[in-house]
Amino acid sequence: MGADFLTKRHHRHRTTCRQDRRPNWAEQVLVDYFPPPCHYIPLPENSRFVGREAALLDVQQRLFGPAHSRSRVAVVGLGGIGKTQVALQVAYWAKKNRPQYSVLWLPALSDTTFEQACTEIAKRLGIHRADDKDIKDTVRQYLSSDKARPWLLVVDNADDLDMVLGGLDSPGLIDYLPRSEHGKIMFTTRSADVAEAVAEGDVIKLADMDDQEALDLLEKCLQRRDLLSDKTSTTELLKELAYLPLAITQAAAYLKRNQIPISEYLGRLRGTAQDTIRLMSREFYDDSRYRGTGNAVATTWLVSFDQIRKLDNAAADLLMFMSHIEPKGIPRSILPSTESQEEIVHAIGTLYSYAFLNRRGQSEVYDMHSLVHLATRVWMQKHRLIEEAVRKAILHVAKVFPTDDHENRDLWREYMPHALKLVQGNREFDIEERYNLYFWIGRCLQVDGRIREGVDCLERFHFWKETTLVETHPDRLTSQHELAIAYQANGQVTEAVALLEKVVAIEEQTLVETHPLRLASQHTLAIAYQANGQVTEAVALLEKVVAIQEQILIETHPSRLASQHSLAVAYQANGQVTEAVALLEKVVAIQEQILIETHPSRLASQHTLAVAYQANGQVTEAVALLEKVVAIREQTLVETHPDRLTSQHTLAVAYRANGQVTEAVALLEKVVAIREQTLVETHPDRLASQHELAIAYQANGQVTEAVALLEKVVAIQEQILIETHPSRLASQHSLAVAYQANGQVTEAVALLEKVVAIQEQILIETHPSRLASQHTLAVAYQANGQVTEAVALLEKVVAIREQTLIETHPSRLVSQHELAIAYQANGQVTEAVALLEKVVAIREQILIETHPSRLASQHSLAVAYQANGQVTEAVALLEKVVAIQEQILIETHPSRLASQHTLAVAYQANGQVTEAVALLEKVVAIEEQTLVETHPLRLASQHTLAIAYQANGQVTEAVALLEKVVAIREQTLIETHPSRLASQHTLAVAYQANGQVTEAVALLEKVVAIREQILVETHFDRLASEGWLTYIMNNLNVQDKDEDEDEDTSPGELEGL
Q1: pLDDT in tens, 459-505
Q2: Which helix (H) or strand (E) holds 906?
């Protein structure tokens, strides 16, 4: 293929390449003056040769181009890359297309092969030598003389620098090479140093084969197209063989001989290291290569390795080190140091000259050919060098591997694949440094979000300490402490608690009460207790730690402040929000006196205080403090720093709580974008921000986007986290909430039932997460028309929380609040009112007047009052709520608008229809300015305004507005979505009021048909639509009858329903 390409490509040489043409006068002189051409090419022409057009053309142009200015060319490249085969193609091309040239071949594998070839060439040329004359020198003199006709000499495998160049006292092969204006020499070599020396700068580096060339070669070698039918395995095999011609030829020989499919060969190649070495060491016959030399890939470079070891010990050491780390992406900084900088530069240059190492552009990162990587270990095994090399490599990497400080992140990410390869690939080396390396690898993996891998490494570190140290040794206890933290991060909270309890028990026996290590372990155990739902235990243990530290440490001691910080977090989890705020304010006040404004600990405490403020209803203060923290971190930390991103994340959450939903979405989108660039797809922080962004999307009315993002998060977590992991369950919980908001109530119920079932197996009955999921499932049951189930489940949750939580705990009050709403939906309005009055009374005692939770309960109580016929009380309470919110919340805040919305509904129920219309028009006007057209809240307010219009006699306006709402919801919501059906139902009622009875009937029949498919028979919404449809149809049927005989349900009764 290559020879044809050269001949056809260059039209200007076509006339000189034909053998059947008449010679011109100059050539005739050559024929008359010189003896006939002589050819000595010991290898046959390779019928399997493919590709390499660019390299062949380059050689031909340099040697035989119009200028004829270059007499020497060297082709350099990795062993097995096909240099000899390229030279063979050039030799046979010259023999065919340059008939005036003698083509001669000198293999430089050794002095012996070189001399034997010279002897054969002398015979072919008919040269006679004197008895004492060196045959090499005889051939050189003849070819350099005017007697010789033009010649092309191929010096193949000129790899050994000493043999080629010689020394001070001994000549090299280069001294026996002829020089003549009629001669050309082509060298092939693995050594760039040799190439530069012999070719005087005319060097061609032979590149790797491309995908198509490699496939063509495999096909020619196999001679069986059926073996290539598995395209996927074929592609993967060629990649695995790194497109190396020798490796492809060897694989083809194995496949042909053993009659196995490519997929099976690929499986063996990817087996154990010993299997791979055995496979790649298998010799095979190849007539295009020299007899007596190894053809197997694993042995083809052994001579080069020996040469390097002889010439450059530092390079050999580097080669051995690299063979035990990853072959790709090797940073220079991880390489063992040498006596001088120049020595390592020279060593790298030696490996580069043999094409064993390639540099990535201008960077300080190198790549080694994967098969060279394998062959190096074969060579080391042969010379029994592996054990010492591995030991040195482990000691070196353990010394240079960085700690898990954030400023080292880029470095540990560069080193990580190499360190993992080293410790995982040499499990038989039980030395302390290997396990210490496991420790730092595990810590860094954990920071990088690769929690499972981190746990595995820390378990191995702990195993070493457990088997070599006594139970009370501090290092063994430290290993258990660190492993417990990793377990907790991995969702193995029970294991974390058990391990930490063991550590604390030992330290309580062996260390005094005030010992820092004992206190640190108790501190960590308390955090694990909190994660395990044992909040009371966490608070008790942290109060004990804090009490001791307050006796022995000064007020400003970092450990004392850290424990107080953690205790405040536990207080908040225990519903003691006031205590949490007070303690954190104390911590922050001290740190503001002793630490600079940019100190991480000071900022961390301010961050946590802001979270507590938000929990305490001080949302404005939370936002202000977080904005301050974020501003400082944006000035002092890089954009990608975890602390900066965490504060921005938390600020976005506070924005959402403050009604600044647009700002929350924008900030979270920024955080997510950065984390998607810098963190792996499975990193917990990346997933957490995506989770929070989905919640913000939902709050912003972008429910579809919320569902899509949460489904992505859940899918990833289901792949990487165990079924019981808290983060996985939390995301499934949030996805169910989004499903419900999207009208996928059935899916929401199914997913929450799954979450609850798992949590009921793994968490104690009183665990906050278990109760929270049961609470949310009850809400979904209610949305699904399963009101009885909702009430039953909420009564269970409330009963447990009333036993385990103090009367004022937020979670207890939230469940009571939700149970009251379920009571109301179940027709138990009196119970709803009673329970909400209790909740409101407690919240009015413990929460400030402006607290969101206090206002929310008063809001719900007003709704219950209205349902109970206490419309006057409802209006009065809602007017109070609205008045407060108008003082503390911005005009566009969702909670403020929601209360105004509900107050308008109460006004309408109280006969104040004009006030209702006016207030709803105000709400709708604001939402039309601030919310997108498809936002659920905007549509809900327009829906309610249309009802008020109808009540106010503005039926035309009601129909027009409802048609607009229905049109939007039909575009954006699925057919079965409750909000879409509710608007269609209400539009049908408006049609009837407007005299459009046909349209009313058609639309209600459609709504009824859908609700009968998706809702249980007793569902309130289904009954309402069926009732209205019956009423309208009966009215149509009795139009011709006496009105006195009509005993159907009245519209007023239906409105009440």
Answers
A1: 999 999 999 999 999 999 999 999 999 998 887 888 999 999 999 99
A2: helix 894-909
